[in-house]
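Good morning C.,

I know you're traveling, so I'll keep this short. The sequence:
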Amino acid sequence: MTKQYKQPKEQVAENISLNPINFLSDTVGIIETVTAVPTGKPTNLINQFKFYSSGSTYRLYIYDAKNAVWRYTSLT
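The tokens, ready to paste straight into the viewer:
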């Protein structure tokens, strides 16, 4: 007599996109865009990130909670 084994169900992966362009376009609506350098202390995690644009200058500001200062990197 032979044993019969059930075939495992085929698992379908969720449609998760790791494309950086899609990720950035999704965050533009969530992260606030400002035209002045941020100075206040953020009250929650999402407020610790700001897109800055002024003329042809584009920056991503990130709040450094340990040192209580805003840091930025230039975007091109």
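Safe travels,
E.
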